[in-house]
Amino acid sequence: SVSFLFFPQVLLLTCAEDLGCVPGFQQKVFYIEQPFEFTEDQPVLNLEFDDCKGNSKLNFEVSNPDFKVERDGSLVALKNISEAGRALFVHARSEHAEDMAEILIVGPNEKHGALKEIFKIEGNLGIPRQKRAILATPILIPENQRPPFPRSVGKVISSEGAEGAKFRLSGKGVDQDPKGIFRINEISGDVSVTRALDREAIANYELEVEVTDISGKTIDGPVRLDISVIDQNDNRPMFKEGPYVGHVMEGSPTGTTVMRMTAFDADDSSTDNALLRYNILKQTPTKPSPNMFYIDPEKGDIVTVVSPVLLDRETMETPKYELVIEAKDMGGLDVGLTGTATATILIDDKNDHPPEFTKKEFQATVKEGVTGVIVNLTVGDRDDPATGAWRAVYTIINGNPGQSFEIHTNPQTNEGMLSVVKPLDYEISAFHTLLIKVENEDPLIPDIAYGPSSTATVQITVEDVNEGPVFHPNPMTVTKQENIPVGSVVLTVNATDPDTLQHQTIRYSVYKDPAGWLEINPTNGTIGTTAVLDRESPYVQNNIYTALFLAIDSGNPPATGTGTLHITLEDVNDNVPSLYPTLAKVCEDAKDLRVVVLGASDKDLHPNTDPFKFELSKQSGPEKLWRITKLNNTHAQVILLQNLKKANYNIPISVTDSGKPPLTNNTELKLQVCSCKKSKMDCSATDALHISITLILLSLFSLFCKSFL
Description:
Layout: E1 2-7, E2 10-15, E3 24-25, E4 29-33, E5 43-46, E6 49-50, E7 59-62, E8 67-69, E9 74-77, E10 87-93, E11 98-106, H1 111-118, E12 119-121, E13 128-130, E14 134-135, E15 139-142, E16 151-155, E17 157-158, E18 166-171, E19 182-184, E20 190-193, E21 204-212, E22 218-230, E23 244-249, E24 257-260, E25 277-284, E26 293-295, E27 301-304, E28 320-328, E29 338-348, E30 356-357, E31 361-367, E32 372-377, E33 379-380, E34 392-398, E35 405-409, E36 416-420, E37 431-440, E38 455-463, E39 470-471, E40 476-481, E41 489-492, E42 495-496, E43 506-512, E44 518-520, E45 526-529, E46 544-553, E47 560-570, E48 578-580, E49 583-587, E50 594-601, E51 613-616, E52 626-630, E53 635-640, E54 647-656, E55 664-677, E56 680-682, H2 691-708
Pfam families: Cadherin (PF00028), Cadherin_pro (PF08758)
Subcellular location: Cell membrane; Cytoplasm
Protein name: Cadherin-13
């Protein structure tokens, strides 16, 4: 049977079971009407828990931290509360049993409606009947329960009394992965769990319950059965985003935020199990104060708590601090679980110290004519060497009108490397004085300025050296015709000694004369020819012949200067043209009697070259055998006037250039008349007669005939 028990503002639903002791809450579901306000320390209702073994070490936990359950089972509010939500869950655990009770909070007009959802009263019999045949109230199960398993966690009720009717449970956790976590007694409707649950893996299960007949056919349902896993504090806070590195500028005001540390707790974020509080466990180093920083216990923000004076990077033992940060759940209570991480805080440098020269005056000595670094200027700077607040920038502000000096920063030592970039001349100035300033790459902070120590003087002494004579001009150029007579004067060179304070004499000599054409007077520097200058020589490039000469002073040791002479050679017509090719072949039965195209070339330059004139020397005999035809300024064609017998023939040809006066080259073209069969040419001259013999015979025959007549 089913009965209703009414208390002030409380409706209890009970089912008459057997009279034996059942461990757990004797009533699992409560409906209470939402009051205007839950009053502090006023009982809301009484919960009865019995583990059937004396309730040793009984402890209650309420899902809403604003409520608690007294030892006698009274549910009371810890403060005045106007809104507590729609439900409360109470978890009870003793040495021998644990269970969960559900308290549903409804409005004044919802109480009877909520009951009518479960029961419907018919007639005057007072016998309740379920609106639906299956009643499946939500089940709450704490995670991490200890064995033994399976253990009962709830019950499903059905008014369907058909013979052979059975309960069937399905869904994720039953017949879907993860399978086998829950099961139901087919007859009684008791729901049990087979192993410990992990809320962080699955927090809620949505199952379905239905009633089937003996054949397995559904006769009622399915009805949803919600199972919620109650969180336990079984996860420590974890710092997942490391490494944690923060920066703060030296001299920052007290309360400057450096960084934020945030930990993660896998427990239920709506409970104290995941309510984190932060604390600094250790600071290294502990100077100049053991409490340089503070962490906001709720937000995790790390801020400075010392005065700006103490936050001075240059006076610190080290600009790096390490803080061991602890995160504790349960709102920081002693029972909370903890996790730690290390925060590294770097004190960043600002440019509050200008660079200063280590001395006011530097000395340097350099030989004239030499370039390169002559002195390193040293400075001191107390700022961080890894920043622009330490790196120095040097500037020459006076004494460098000719831009003979430059200064650059050595990136490793921060020294100023002063260099000579244009050779100095002792005869012009033996001493130089430079004024140099040093600054930082980064600007100084507003209340700091560069002082007198940021400038220095450099005294430079130039040492005299014996410098070699200098040719004027250099290189020297002159134009001459090739083939001028041997002994002709080409040029008289001039070299002077830059050492004007020393009285020295100069001697001249040939240094490099590739063709051996020149000589120089050692005293007055006159250059003359010792051989014919030939523009067509391989030693001449682009019509220019190059030779080198030395001027040597009388110093000890003597110094030498080198002068370059370029002679541009003008062309004269001193080369006859040459003919190519000098050999031609033709078949004795050839139909095309154009034997060969001849070309002419000349080593001289225009106008001493083309156009060329091609001619045949006078042909002997009664008939002419060939002729030559000009094709263009440089080429002509030799043509046979008739087919010739197999033999070797020499054709005399003359070619004349256009020079004034012109030059002629008389040469011979060797012509081989060959037998040609099946695309093979046979030019062997075994039975061939030289053309000159043939011509002699023809001449003799002609004379014989004339005599006979």
